[in-house]
Design a protein that fits this description.
Chain lengths: ~160, ~290
């Protein structure tokens, strides 16, 4: 049996786009293969590690668990949408300054999950940061520098105007 | 081996009646998929049994929380992210709100739905113990109509339930009469986040003047399905809350639970932890009784 490919319209980082894909193709694979947005990483492929975190209609999701059909007409935000031209997002600056990234595989997911956290809670406590990033695993940093990066970003001016 | 999406079918319907009509036309051939936190994992691992899926994501008829005078109804398609942040659920059914906050991560809670957690049928699922000690009813719907049964009668065995192939979970109904009850929920897992339960115990009770007037107990990962612990409840119901009662109840619980050895824990460990959790709840009831 072969499934029909379906045309899916979606908005990725503010740009309307359309792809033709099997409806059960993972959003992660559509982003990476069809749209060339390889910033979103695959770690575990089963919703445990958060490397593939994106925002879908403003909600944090694991893109490895979203069939593309369910992203029809959705607004998707990936790590590629954080920087505006050459200007890094405050979280990206903070991760650079505080050593929040080492090997880099978890970093896009961390940045998206942190963006989501700060959008809902501009001034999170350490416990709230730990919970907000609990679904994002890092095997390099030991997490502390990542948490410090989020605190530093929250303190940066201009964040509220950029995060939704 | 990774599953190939080219071999799978997924359709979306525009309304609940459309979904039910599809399912009625070919009962058992369509597998409903909501947030995909179970099925997409199986898909990625290449171990999906089904080939045809029908999406429930975004169906307004399944996505509601209705607060009535005497009950709260939660649609099957409501995510745990919404459940944990709903004010009336948090005040009337705090155990359910807490269980919701323990499910996976924020990203999982934004996709995982109440009906999915139930229909997936895992004995370790987080929401069922809370639903059981709140006397929840489950409402099932198909093109033939709807029916409402006690949630305690829903699961029949390991991954088996009364759900017919053409039926969906429409809603869970929780009676609003537990706000004065003492309530308990504890999950024992490997770590705080992203952990699957080794053992969990939920309880609601009313103790007055040292006597247990009413008690409900339910547990996860101690049997082939989420269970009410009726025998243990009976050992406590109407009794003075004494050390002897606590010891007797512990012995009954050790007999009542039927856990297994698996990758997450052992039957022996689960039995004793379940008994310890019961004792912790009873100690809390005792302290509350003597201070109040």
């Amino acid at each position: 049996m072969s499934a029909c490919r379906t045309q899916i319209h979606l908005t990725v980082n503010g740009q309307q786009t359309a792809v033709e894909a099997p409806p059960m193709k993972r959003l992660l694979d559509v982003l990476r293969e069809d749209l060339g947005l390889t910033g979103t990483k695959e770690g575990c492929g089963e919703g445990e590690c958060g490397s593939c975190s994106v925002r879908m209609n403003g909600e944090l999701v694991n893109s490895c668990l979203v069939p593309i059909l369910q992203a029809s007409d959705a607004r998707i935000e990936t790590v590629e949408g954080l920087a505006i031209d050459a200007e890094l997002h405050p979280l990206q600056k903070a991760f650079l300054e505080c050593g929040g990234a080492q090997c880099g595989i978890c970093t896009p997911g961390m940045l998206i999950a942190a963006t989501h956290l700060l959008a809902h809670n501009p001034n999170p406590s350490m416990d709230e940061i730990r919970e907000g990033l609990a679904g994002n695993l890092c095997r390099c940093t030991g997490f502390i520098k990542i948490f410090e990066s989020v605190i530093a970003a929250a303190a940066m001016r201009g964040l509220e105007t950029r995060a939704r | 081996m990774r599953g190939d999406p080219e071999n799978l079918e997924l359709i979306a319907a525009s309304s609940l009646p459309d979904v039910l009509a599809q399912m009625a036309a070919a009962p058992g051939s369509w597998t409903p998929i909501a947030g995909g936190t179970e099925l997409m994992v199986a898909h990625a691992a290449g171990r999906l049994n089904a080939q045809k899926f029908i999406s429930l994501w975004g169906l307004a008829e399944l996505d509601f929380i209705r607060v009535q005078d005497d009950s709260i109804s939660i649609g099957g398609g409501v995510t745990f992210g919404h459940i944990r942040s709903h004010a009336a659920i948090a005040s009337d059914f705090p155990l359910l709100a807490r269980a919701a906050s323990w499910i996976g991560s924020i990203a999982n809670q934004n996709r995982a739905t109440l009906a999915g957690n139930i229909v997936n049928g895992s004995p370790a699922a987080d929401a069922p113990p809370a639903l059981l000690v709140y006397d929840a009813e489950i409402e099932l719907i198909s093109q033939r109509g709807s029916r409402r049964i006690p949630y305690a009668d829903f699961h029949l065995g390991y991954k088996q339930s009364v759900l017919e192939p053409d039926e969906l979970v429409l809603a869970l109904h929780l009676p609003r009469r537990f706000s004065k009850h003492s309530q308990y929920l504890r999950k024992v897992g490997t770590r705080k986040a992203m952990a699957i339960t080794k053992v969990a115990l939920a309880g609601t009770a009313i103790v007055e003047n040292g006597t247990i007037h009413e008690i409900r107990l339910a547990a996860a990962s101690v049997a082939d399905r989420p269970v009410r612990m009726i025998a243990t409840e009976e050992a406590l119901q109407g009794r003075w809350l004494t050390a002897a009662t606590r010891n007797a109840a512990r012995a009954v619980l050790l007999n009542e639970v039927r856990p297994i050895d698996d990758i997450r824990s052992t039957a022996e460990y689960r039995k004793h932890v379940a008994a310890n959790l019961l004792d912790e709840f009873l100690a809390e009831l005792n302290n509350r009784g003597s201070s109040g």
